[in-house]
Amino acid sequence: MTKWVYNFGKLGTDGDSSMRNLLGGKGANLAEMSGIGLPVPPGFTISTDVCTYFYDHNHTYPDTLDAEVRAAIVKIEAETGSAFADPKNPLLVSVRSGARASMPGMMDTVLNLGLNDETAAGLAKHANDSRFAYDSYRRFIQMYGDVVMDVDHGLFEDALEDMKRERGLINDTDLTGDDMMALVAIYKDIVMEEMDTPFPQDPWEQLWGAIGAVFTSWTNTRAATYRRLNNIPAAWGTAVNVQAMVFGNMGDDCATGVAFTRDPSTGENSFYGEFLINAQGEDVVAGIRTPLPLTAKEREKSGSSAASLQEAMPEVFAQLDDVRSRLEAHYRDMQDLEFTVQQGTLYMLQTRSGKRTAEAALRMAVEMAEENLISRDEALCRIDANALDQLLHPTLDPKAEKICLTRGLPASPGAACGKIVLSADRAEEMAAAGETVILVRLETSPEDIHGMHAAAGILTARGGMTSHAAVVARGMGRACVCGAGDVRFDQVSGKIFIQDQVLSEGDLITIDGANGDVYAGAVDTIQPKMSGAFGTIMKWADERRRLGVRANAETTTDAQVALDFGAEGIGLCRTEHMFFDADRIIAMRQMIMANNTEGREAALAKLLPMQRKDFESLFTIMAGRPVTIRLLDPPLHEFLPHSADELAEVAEVSGVTVETARQRAVKLSESNPMLGHRGCRLAITYPEICRMQARAIFEAACAVAQTTGDVPSPEIMVPLAATAREISLCKQEIDAAAAAVTAETGVSVSYLVGTMVELPRSSICAAELAEEAEFFSFGTNDLTQTALGISRDDAGSFLHHYADADIYPVDPFVSIDREGVGFLVDMGVKRGRTTRPDIKLGICGEHGGDADSICFFEEVGLDYVSCSPFRVPAARLAAAQAAIKNSA
Amino acid sequence: MTKWVYNFGKLGTDGDSSMRNLLGGKGANLAEMSGIGLPVPPGFTISTDVCTYFYDHNHTYPDTLDAEVRAAIVKIEAETGSAFADPKNPLLVSVRSGARASMPGMMDTVLNLGLNDETAAGLAKHANDSRFAYDSYRRFIQMYGDVVMDVDHGLFEDALEDMKRERGLINDTDLTGDDMMALVAIYKDIVMEEMDTPFPQDPWEQLWGAIGAVFTSWTNTRAATYRRLNNIPAAWGTAVNVQAMVFGNMGDDCATGVAFTRDPSTGENSFYGEFLINAQGEDVVAGIRTPLPLTAKEREKSGSSAASLQEAMPEVFAQLDDVRSRLEAHYRDMQDLEFTVQQGTLYMLQTRSGKRTAEAALRMAVEMAEENLISRDEALCRIDANALDQLLHPTLDPKAEKICLTRGLPASPGAACGKIVLSADRAEEMAAAGETVILVRLETSPEDIHGMHAAAGILTARGGMTSHAAVVARGMGRACVCGAGDVRFDQVSGKIFIQDQVLSEGDLITIDGANGDVYAGAVDTIQPKMSGAFGTIMKWADERRRLGVRANAETTTDAQVALDFGAEGIGLCRTEHMFFDADRIIAMRQMIMANNTEGREAALAKLLPMQRKDFESLFTIMAGRPVTIRLLDPPLHEFLPHSADELAEVAEVSGVTVETARQRAVKLSESNPMLGHRGCRLAITYPEICRMQARAIFEAACAVAQTTGDVPSPEIMVPLAATAREISLCKQEIDAAAAAVTAETGVSVSYLVGTMVELPRSSICAAELAEEAEFFSFGTNDLTQTALGISRDDAGSFLHHYADADIYPVDPFVSIDREGVGFLVDMGVKRGRTTRPDIKLGICGEHGGDADSICFFEEVGLDYVSCSPFRVPAARLAAAQAAIKNSA
Fold first, then answer.
1. Which SS3 state, helix, strand or coil, does residue A160 take?
2. pTM recorded for the entire structure
3. Which chain A residues have a beta carbon less than 8 Å from that of B826?
4. Active site residue: B417, B702, B765, B844, which one?
5. Is the CB of A484 inside 8 Å of chain B's CB atoms?
6. Helix locations, B529-596, DSSP H
């Protein structure tokens, strides 16, 4: 028979901290603390299995649950000496949710359960404190009314305020026991009026009501949103913890507080916390009274005159400090504690791994490893690799006041504030004049790159996490919020609308790329600082990881940043980014307008020296490290302007009529450019483009080899190939160019020709592709787009519904979809190796910088990941974590 | 040691007809005929392996080839008594290509090889006919000069004409032996002048030159194009046949001719052919002299006075008639023969399976089976299922004169001529006025459907074989040529340009959807007639096939056509096609413009009765047969108009401002609609749409069940699902609608809910999908688009390059890409069955009507295919062929 209820307390504890999945985090840790002899009020946990049962069986419970709960209550009664529903010495309990992962404040809690008219009177007598008893009762009615019975809690608050106003009082504490008793009557009337049913007097009915409310709250909107944002599956469910109440509000020998075993902001190894004398836990959180510092040292630092716990209750503090040491040694991690002191006795109500800033996480991990509390591997695994980004970018000052206008997708981390500009040219202009600007666009295209570079941040109304704006912003390290669908543009007035706000060019705006928020006006930001711990962790990570880490970069700036962040090569140089400079786009457009090979070759001849120079710079910076260069990838129409005027200019420069230019543009336009005439399809139809690029690569490599002595290692990547034949046709051109350049220069450069595996067919036919390709680089962006049939530029309109509906709980463009896209990567790896066992395998999609995805890439055995320069540190750490996990 | 050369002749034959891959069709059949004792001039075949070697080794030959060729020549000499290069009695040979598949006229042939100044003189003496010898020599120089030495053959023809003019002669036959000798000298001068090298006198040099030319011709443009059009892989290569010459031009006891063992046009079982007295084979083909009928019966029918072969050479005819019987009995198929009579002796030069019209193929197959020459299975396999379409559509009169303007893709079979119209509205208007029109568009969209229906044919400049125009045209049975890239539109003048022709609305044009040709003016067409053999074959096919055959149809017309053609149900009813009628599109657009659920529901309420009526008609026609209804699939923006004026109308009807309508349209527009907010993503974000459609289906089903007593079998298909959760969410809506309608009507309808497997992830995760889906219908169009990353609407710009370059030798939208897309279908089948062994499996992409693809679907074990109504007969036949092949 399944056991549904797990006790904890002096009379026996059934669980421990390893049972987090079954008991939830809170329940497992209460059991653990109880098990190691810490002072925990007795109680029991109803397991998450019951939650699953509850949702699978139309909100009903297993048959045996009732009996188990009754038995567990008896155990509490035995330890506390009180009795549930006993008017003489009533047992009061708290009912709290507790999921596997911490979801603070997301679900419901009911305190003081067990009070009714009779037991309240009994409690008043037993505690000899009528005010305490009826304060507890009216709090219980309010909480229970709100949480279980769905009464608007504002009504209770209004009643309390009314009473204070009538009595001419300011603080709740000034109300007397009689006032509280009167409030209880008013509260009960509110319940009756609102719900047409009296407030339940039967403690058992109360208990089952509260348990049901906690389970039901698992799927409330707040919780569902939190789970989505934090990648918590709905299937995990929550446990329910029922525990004897202890009271921090029975007099001045009572207190309640929260503490961290180390400083959660800085990571410093010193006890940190806050408490209130004579208060219930909710008072600390509610902020009605200002909590006091825990330690004397902190009190001094804050300049407060009120005594710290250390000073006010030295014995209790000593006991708590001891608990601190025991818990940190026991859990081997910084703990976040809740405690209550009832009439001089310390009770521990919760311990859990404490949340911390990225900076603190880093420092704690390094210091704990140096203290031998944890191993280096553990230290590496303690840090959220994805959060490492925080350390490299400005963040919003949490203390700053802000007005949130709307929320988009957190596309590229960092906070930025500046003046709104609506075009790339204007961004460049204003930035040149010394202004800090935020570029606001419907969406961006390669033509906007100079403006994105000039801006401090980018905000778009359309596009997902891997839209052009997002990818480029991450590459440049610019803050970016994408797909903020509420942002609308009025072309006539040149104004933008966000909800009901009207903004113009020049107005100040702030964006937070870490969470997608958009704020009105300027919000203060905090600049990042990199600690010594950062360097230490990176060193340890490099020692531990198996995966190589490269960067996606094409400019010298990006390449240098990548190198500084520890990239071991370039995994993706997108050559098309090199064609958008003003002097180059002209030649590019001439090539597009040419209607024969000769015309194209003439235009390409102009591009050759520029492209060669680009590669020379890259090769020089990378000093012999591998550089993967992808041949021209986007469809040609991306290089054409959109307006008729600009097209007329193109026509003139290219020596064709406006009508011809228009015809050509129309002919090039595509219904689905993502699936269009792009990638190696360009090289197949216009081999002269491939030829020019190959020549530029080899000429640059030879020149750099001769000048610097560092022989470059180009890896030439054929994009979008789905057949071996496509690669072999491109390879013919590449090999011919290599041979020709070697003949001309006398320098021989060793190089690889490989392909980007970014189509399902390419993975399926990987064995065949590997006959030609010397390396594969998985292009997981396009592989995700094609495998899932989702355009990353258009996903904004439905992907959040998909997250809400638990269809793709995690954005598949952020973290790899293991079942679908992952299957294809794995198949590509296996099949590629059947033909060419030593084939070099990498990944250069956006997933290359995502920790969960990197873990997957370690599992399938890729050789390296490649990501945006700013994500290189995170990738190094994630690669180490993946290696650790994989060796476990 | 590999054997490269295979002899045939009285002294020994190495090959037979089973060795077609190695010896080519011609070589294998020469060996076979020789083997069964028919009179074949001796010779040998150089295998296709040599061709492979030749291309793999930089146009060189295997070491041992020379010795094998010399030995084979010695054998010919022994049988003929003549000797190669012997001036006294020279052996002359022909050198001909012969590939595995017949490629008539595509590659090169050299006759009379072995002649030089000396042997020509010897031949004149030996044959006692100087004119014959020098005529042969000058023909040889011309052919060899043209084929091997690349001399412009016009120069030779000019010289011949010059001589005739000088001599005042009209026919070649009037030239004397001396004239021919003089021509030989002139021809040799031409070669010297053009090529700076004398005409080779060494017969061995001539032989190797000719062999090399044949191998080289395998990759000439003509041959490459032919291969592409006929799906012949380049890797097959060609064989070379070297054979002793026989002469039909040595006097009036000589003749040459071609014959078919049955009539290739009608299929009638009567000997049919043409011949010329005193001529070489090329004369029959060249059409300089009009060939005469073979039999007396035919001569009478033609009203000719010249004697037939039967009358002119009764003994030879009897011998040939005997060969006819022997060959048909031997090959068990209609044969296409070439023969030469040299001085009263019959020689067989070729036999091969004869090409035939679809009509003839049908009749022969049925009659041969009834004659017990072949089995019914063989009869079924004798007919090209894809060509069956010819029988259902008009074809161009082959005798009509025509001016080809350009060529596009053969998107929907049938020939049509009519007046050009450039818009759907105009098409409808003119058709209503009794005109036959061809709708010419850049591309079509769902808004053009009424115009496509009104038109006799559709011509588009953009789009591939599965573009909107192609799919819809095939569905409607309209002729269609797609992706004719040379067609340009001048919006200002309203004219269209094709190459250098300017055409206007109202000008006559003719299109041939069977081959993609576009002709100026009206070209006569021939209406199809269906014979009794058609019905017989269909009956046999139905008895033999395992696969069910359904049709893709949504209109009552299409459904009725499908039923008449033998469809067993509807495999795909695209509900969106039902929303484009003038009265419906308004409500549809109101729904799109609504910005909340209530607004959408109000608009949907208007659509409900219309949609219900559609389903009632379909269910009534299909009378209990399964009807698969796909929920709304295309992105909503497809229902919005494109011009500002029209959008303003939409705004007015929908009660929103023009600006709001514009904003909504902008917000809905997508970069890659194919991968956008469509399919079940619509149902997830707007469940009210799914709800309305489900209700319409069940209301219609209940109504029809009550009225007709035939209980409909709706199979409701959730499109574009890639996760089980998507299906389950839609299923909730569908099940709720079913329950509600049953409660209202008291009628219970059994139905299935399934999904369209059209994304790679769906195949990969098919086991999971099958937990929810009761059937899968593979949407191979979209599966091809996503697996290969090719937009069918944009593929026109590169797919022909891909065919030319042998990357995708067959258009993957026409015939399924087995390696890539096929793998996914197979995986989807296998994985789907692991979860639900009895899952119903079908395919409703365009491949459902393609014979090769149907063969694949049989192999992987689908339950049914679904295709355009007009392809149903072809699919029935192909399904039978597939069953036969699969049981072999």
1. helix
2. 0.80
3. none
4. B844
5. no
6. 532-544, 556-564, 582-593
